[in-house]
## 1
Amino acid sequence: MTTNTYRSEAGFTLNPDENALSTIIDLCTANPDLVLFHRPSKFDWVEVTASEFLAEVRALAKGLIANGIEAGDRVVLHSNTRYEWTLADLAIWSVGAATVPVYPSSSAHQIQWIIEDSGAKLAFTESRDNTAAMEHLLVGEGGQPRLSGSPSQLQRIVEFNSGGLDELKAEGADVSQELVDARVAGITHDTLASIVYTSGTTGRPKGVNLTHLNWYHQATALGANPIGAVAKPGRHVVTFLPLAHVLQRAVSLALTMHGATQSHWGDTGTLTVELQRAKPHMVLGVPRVFEKVRGAAYNKAADGSGIGKKVFLAAERAAIAYSRALDTPQGPGPLLKAQVKVFDKLVYSKVKAAIGGRAEYGITGGSAMSAELSHFFRGMGIPIYEGYGLTETTAAACVNNSEHCRIGTVGRPVNGYAARISADGEIEISGDGVFTSYWNNPEATENAVTDGWFNTGDLGEIDDDGFVRITGRKKDLIVTAGGKNVSPGPLEEIIRQDPLVSNALVVGDGKPFVGLLVTLDAEELKRWKAENNVPESKSLRQLAHDAELRAAVQDAVNVANATVSRAEAIKKFRILERDLSEKDDEMTPTMKVKRNVVAKRFAREIEELYKR
C-alpha cells in the first residue's frame, strides 16, 4: 500500500544511440574553440578549449588501452577535485571501462575494500600519499599481490603529481584513434559506467552500479532545470565538492555536456579565493558550505564591533521576513522592501562579494538545510535550491528550482523521476536515473529495489503539489524506553543553526528520555569568552559545566524542543570537549555525522547523561 505518488514527466527524450560521453564528444567536435575549463598552470590560470580537452581525453584513453584495460574493466580514481579528475574519468569511459571513485578522505581500510571488491586493474591517484595507501595491493610477478592473501587485481598506479598522465599518453602513442572510437561506439545505455561506493554512515560501503543510462538521464534532467540557466556557453561554475560524490559529478557532467566553463578547486579551506577569482554564476554546495558563508559574514561583522553584530542580525531577520513574505498572496510590504534595500548595501552585498559577486543562485543537497538559512539567502537575492537524492538515484531525484520552489521541502521529482510514500512512511523513487543493482551483492539489491522502486530508507511526505518533505531517516529513528519514536534529524538541524553550536547528535534509543551530545563552534566560543569575561586559556573541559555557557546552549535546545511534544523533547545534554571531524571518521565527506561511530566513541559521555 502506498500513498501520495508523484511522477514528473520527462521534458526530454534520450536517444538510445547517445550517452553523456558521446554528447560531450559531439560538442567538442562541433565547437573546438569553446572554453570548457580553466586550469592552473605555473601560478596562473589558462583556458582549455573543447578541442584541447578532447585531445587529452583521447590520448589518455589510448594509454589505458596500451596498458591492457578492456571494456568492462574497473579503474579506481582517488584524488581531490581537479581538472585531471575529469580528464581521467572520461578517458576511462572512452575505453568502455567503469570508473570507481574513491573519496580523498577515505581510510586505508576503505581504499583496500574498494580496490579488492571492485576488482580494479588500474588506479589514478593524485599524490604520493594516495599512491602509498594502495601500493601494497599491487600485483607483482607471478600474479600475486604484495599483500599476502589479498584478492586485489591492481596492476598499475598512475599518479597525477609525478607526471603519470604524460607517461600514460606516451605509452598509448601507437594506439590508433579508430580503436578508441570503436570502444566509444560499443557503449550502450546498459553499459556499466561507474561503481560508486556509498559513504557509509553505517556499516561497510556498498558498490552502487550506475550505467551510462543512469548518468545520461541525470545529467540531462539537471541540464533542463535547475542548472539550465548556467549550463550554457559563457557561464562559469567552480567545481569544488569531491567529484567522488555523485551530485558534484553529475552537475559537472551536465555543465560539460552543455558547454559551460568550469574551474576545479580541491581546497575548501581557501575556496573564497577561487570564488572571487572565477566569479561563478551558480554555487553548488552541501548545507555546511552555505552555513560557513553565512557564519563567516556574521563573524566578520561581530568581530568588528557590537554595532556590526546587531546590524548583521537585523539584516538577517529582514531577509528572512522578506523571503517568507514572498510566499504570501500579498508579498513583501513597502517597509520590508525598503529595509532589504538598505541592508543590501550594508550587509548582503558583502556576502555576495565573498562568493564572487555574480552568483544568481545555489543548489544544495547531501543533508538537510534549515529553512531559516534558505530564507536568509533567498531574501538577500541568492535563492538556494535544496534537492534530495542518493548514490542509488545517481544524485538528484528531487530538487527545487526557479519555477517550482517551496522552502522546507526538497522540491518535486526531477524530470523523469517519480516519488511515492510507502505504507510505513518511507520514500521510494523510480525512474531512469535509479540504479538496478549493487556490485556483487544480490541480497542487498533484493532488499533495496522492489518492482523498479528504490527504498531510500528516508521517511517523508508528499504534498498535493508534489513537493517532497523529509521527516527523518528510518534507521536513525530513536525509540525511547517509554516506546516513543523520535526522529533526531529535525531536532539536530534546528540546534545547529545556533551560532554557538557546531554539531549536534540526538541520542536516547532504549533510554528513559531523549539526550543530546553537542559540540561548539571555535570562533563563536572565543567570542562568547570575550563577551563574558572568561579567560581565553580556559578549556572546554573546564567550561563544560559552566552555568552561563550551558544556559546559552540550552537556549538552542529550547528552540528545537518547541517544535516537538514533551515526550520527544531533549531533557539533558552534554558538551563534548572537541568537535567532530571527517579526519577522525566521525563525519562523511558530505558532512553527515556517522552516528554509529560517534555513539561508540562517546559511549561514556552518553551513559553519563542517564546517571542520576
## 2
Amino acid sequence: MIPELKADLLRRRVAVARVVHGPHMLAFLPALTLAGYWLGGEIALLVVALGLPALYAISADSDVEPLDPTRPLPDLIDITMANDLAEQILARATGFDLSTACFVIEAEGLEDIRRRSGDDPIHSLHGSILRRLRREVRRGDRVVRIGDTRFLVLLAPSLRLDLEALLTMADRIQRSLEEPCDTETGTHYLSFAVGFCGSHRLGDDVTGPQLVEAAQTALAEAVSNGPSAIRAWSDSMSAERKARKTLLHEIERALALGQIQPWFQPQICTSTGSISGVEALARWLHPTRGIVSPKEFLTVLAEAGQLDRLSEVILEQSLTAMRAWDAEGIIIPQVSVNFTDVELRNPHLVERIKWELDRHGMAPSRLGIEVLETVIAESPEGIVARNIVGLSKLGCQVDLDDFGTGHASITALRRFTVHRLKIDRSFVTRVDRDEEQRRMLAAVLGLADRLGLKTVAEGVESVSEHALLSQLGCDHVQGFGIARPMPADQMADWAKRHGAKIAKARNLGRSTG
C-alpha cells in the first residue's frame, strides 16, 4: 500500500477508535437505540443493534492496537521496517493528540575497529550499544539497529516532547554511549553523533518515513560538524538535503551520459625528461555549469555509497584512452587511478580489475593503483590489505599517495608491496627557498632510496622546484608547473609536443658534444 494512503487509513481508524471507545459514548448508547426505534421502527433498531458491535470490531483492528512494549523486535531492521514502525507509532500519537520523536545515532569509530581487529569485537559492541540505549529510554520506546554503525530510537507517544526535553534526552544518550566499552580485544572508546526530530516540528500531515528522514538529515548535519555533535532537525536542513538529492540525481545522470570522465596529468621522469605516466583525475563536464570541482560531487557520491560506480567509469575510460594512445604510437607507459578505502573493501575488486585489463588487452604493469597512506596505516589486516596485495601480485603498480601525511610504518610499506611513494605537495612547496623544507624532503627521499622505492613529487609548480627535485634524487615529478590535468585528446597532443621537444633537446646535446 502507498505509505501516505496507509498512514491516512491508520489515522482514520484511530479517530474512530477514540470516538467509539471513549467513555462519553456510554452516555449516548440508550439515546441512540431509542432514536433508532422511533425514527425507523424495528428495522432501524436492528441496524443499530447489529451495527454498533461491527463498528467496535472495526475500530479495534489490530493495526491500531496500542503498541505492545513487551513484543520484541529484531536488533537489526532495514529502513523499510523502520519507516513502518515509525508510521505505527506516529499514527497512535496523532490519533490521541500526542507527540513522538525519532533519534538516529551514528557510532563513529566502529569501522576503524573492524579494520584493526575484525568482526568479532563489532558484534560485542553492537550488543553493548543496544543495551545502553535501552537503559536510557522508557519501556514503550523502541530501540533498533539500522546499519553497521547506525541506531534508531522511536519514542512512544507522549504529552511533552519539546525541543528542550529532546535535547536533554539526546545529551543523556550520548554521555551513556561514550563511556568506555570492554570487549575481548580490549577497551574501546567510541564517539557518537546524534540527530533527532520531534513529530510536532513537521506539521499535522507528517508520515513515518518523513519523521525518520528528518532525523537522518539532522544526523548528517551532526556528522559533518565533527565528532560527538548533536543536531535537531530544522527547515534549512531539509532544503539543503533536497539540494543534495538533486545534485546526486544529476551526478547519476552525468555518469550514465559520460559527462564525468578522467582528465590526465602527466608525470615526468627527472633523469630523461620523458613522460613516465599519467594520473587519472575525475572531472564533471556539466552542460550549463562547466567544469564542476571534484570536491562538490565526490562527497555526495561517498554519502550515497556510489564511489564504486565512479571508479568503474574512470578505470574503463582510462584504459580506453591508453589503448587509443597506443594505436597512435604515443608512448605513455602507465596510467594511475585513485582508489578509496570504500572501493578497496569490495571483495571482488581484484577480479573486476583483472577482467577490465583483459578486456582492453592491457598488461597489469601499465595500471597504477593509488592508495592513500592513511588507508594502509589503518588497514593492516582484512579485505583492504588482501585487495592491495592481490593487485600487486596481479602485476599492478601500487603507489602510496600523499606520503608523509599519514602514519604508515616501514613494515606496512613492505607488507603491502608498495612500488612508489607519492610525496605530498606540502613537502614540495617552497623547497627551493626554504632550507628546513629542503632537509625534510631530502630525508624522505633518502628513506625511499634505502627501501628501494621509486618517488613521485606532487604539486611541482616552478622550474626551480623541478630542478631541485632532480638534484635531490626524486625519480618523477607532477604538477601545474609541468602541465595541468587535461582530456584524453588534449593529452595526446601534449604528449606529441613534449616528445618532439625532448627529441630536439637530445639532438642539440649530441651536436654540441
## 3
Amino acid sequence: MTFRQFAFRNVMRNRRIYAAFFMASVFSVMVFFLYSMLLFHPSIEGSAVQDIAVLGMGIAEIILYIFTMFFLFYSMRAFLQARTKEFGILLHLGMEKRQLHRLIFIETLIIGAASIGVGTFLGYMFSKFFFMVVRRIVMLPALPLYFSWEPFALTVGAFLSLFIIISWVAPVFIRTGKLDELIRGDSVGMETHGFSKIRGVIGLILLGLSYGMAAFTSNSIVIGLVFLLPPLATLGTYFFFTDSLPFILHLFKVRKDFYWRHFRLLAISEGVIRLKENARMFFIVTIVSTVAFMSVGILASLTSFASQYREMNPLGLVYESFPGNELEHEHINRLEYELRKNEIEYTYVQFPVLKQRSSLTDNNVTIIQLSSVNQLSRSFGNQAFELKEGEALFLPPTASTFEQLNRQTVKTVLEESGIEVRINGAYPYELFPAHAIGTNTIILNDADYDKLALLVKPSSVYHAFDIPDWQKTKNIGLNIEHSVTESIIKGTRGKLHFNFDNPGLNYSVMRTTFTLLLFIGLLLAGVFLLAAGSFIYFRLYTSLDSDRKQFDVLRRMGITNKEFKTIVNRQLIPQFFVPWGVALIHSFFAFLSLQVIWDALAEISIVRELTMVLVGFTALQVIYFYLIRWRYLAHIRTPE
C-alpha cells in the first residue's frame, strides 16, 4: 500500500465524520459556480441587468469565499484535534512528523478535489434551472444554458487555491504534547469544566441591554444603534455560552429536589460538560445563523418595500414643472403621444400650485384647486367633494397624518391676497405620493382659488397621470428620465427646471434588483445554515464512540427504549435548538429596529415577510434535527 493509498483510505475510513463538512464544501462550490455562470453569461452583457448581476453576484462570491475560508479553517482545526488519538498511534508506530504533515496535506487535497469536482458538476447540472428562475426575476426574453471555460476556471482556481492554503496550514492545528497524551486523545483535559459567575452575569446583562435598546429604539438613535448593538450582542452571546448557561445549569444542580428526579441528573450533568466543551462552537453557530436570518430578513423587507410601492405611488407618471421651463409643453405632449402609441389608458390632470403665507402660523401654505382634485379622484373611483366659498381641506402629506389633520378645524387668512378660509378636516383619499406637492398643503374651493390665481403666479405646475395598468409605463418618457439622470451625474440638477418620476420604471428596476438580491441571499443563507449544521453534526459524530459506550452501560442497567429516546432528546435538543433559539431571538429584536427604520423611510410593515423568514428557517431546523437524530440513534444502537 502506497502513502497516497493510505491517505485515501484514511479519508474513506473517516467518511462519517467528514460527511457534513464535505456536503457544506460541495454546496459552497456549487453556489459559487452558479454565480459565476450568471456573471459570464453572454445574454446579459451590455444590459442593465449585468450591473445588478455583477454587483450582487460579485459581492456574494466574495462573502461566500471569505466565509468558506473561515469554515474550512475552523472545521479542519476541529477535525485534526479530534483525531489526536489516531495521530498519537501513528507517531508511536514510527511515523515522522514530516510524514504526518504530508499525510494531512494529501487528505485535505483529496477532500478538496472531490468537493470541487462534485460541486462544479452539480452546479452545471442545476444551471438551467438557476437561469430559469433568474430569467423570471429579471424578466429577460431568454437566458439559455451555455458552456464556457471562464466559470469553471474561476471556481476551480478560487477553491483549489483555498484548499491548497488549508492543506499547508492544517498541520499547525495538530495538538502537540506527550505521546501518551496524544494516544489518550479527547479524554485528556475533560475533567474540569469551570465557569465564571461574573462573566455569566455580564453576558446576561449585555444581552438584556442589547434587546432593550433594540426594542425601545426611535428614529433619532436607530442609526447609532446599528453600529453599537452588533458588537455588544456578539460579546454578550460569547459570555452567554461560555459562562451564563453553565451558571444557570449550576443553579439547577443545587436544587436537589429538581436535579435528582428521573433522568435530569444525567441530562443536566452531560449538558454542562457538552456545553463547556462546545461553547465556542455554539457561539459560532449562533452568529452564523443570525447572519443568515438577518441577510434574508433584510432582503425580504426590500421585496416588501417593492410590493407596497404602488400604494406609496398611486400615480402612473408625475411631471413637475417650475418657472422658466421652456420644455414643459414639449415634454407633456411627448408623454401623451407615447401613452397613446402604446395603447395605455390614462387620465391627465394639471395642478397649478400656488403659494401663500398663513396668518395663523406665519408659514407658507401650498394651495391646489378642488375641481382638479375631484377630476383626478374620480379616475380612482372615489366620490367628488364639495366646498363652499371660504372653505378648504388639508391634504395629508402621508397616510399616517390623516387622522391627526382630520380632527383639526383652523381659521386663517392668506396674507398676500387677504382671502379668509376655514380649514375643516382633511382629504380622505390618497392621490399623490407622500410629500409630493408639499408638507403643508390645502385644497381650496374653486371660487377662492380663481380669485387667488388672478393675483399670484403658480410656483410650479404638477402634471398627474393616473394609469391603471401602471407597470406598462416602464418604457414611457425614457428621454426625459435620461435628462434627469444625466443632470444628477453631472451635478447640474439645480439648472433643470423640471422633475419627472416614472413609478413603473422605478418599480421594474427595484423589483428586479431586490428579488435577485433575495435569491442570492437565500443561496448564501443556505450555505451558512448548512455550515452551522455541519458543526453540530461533527461534534455529535466525533463523540459517537464514547456515547455508544455510555448508552451500552445504561442498557445493561435496564433502561427501556422509551427512556433511551428521552435521554437522547434531552441531550440533542439543546445542542440543536439553543444556538438556533438565541439566533432567532437576536434576529427578532434586530427586526424591531429594522421596522423603525422602514416606518421612518416609507411607513410600511415588514411583519409578514419576516414572519415567513423565521417560520421557514424554523421548519428547516426541525427537519434537520429529526434527520440527524434518526441517524444518531441508528449509530448509537449499532454495536462497535
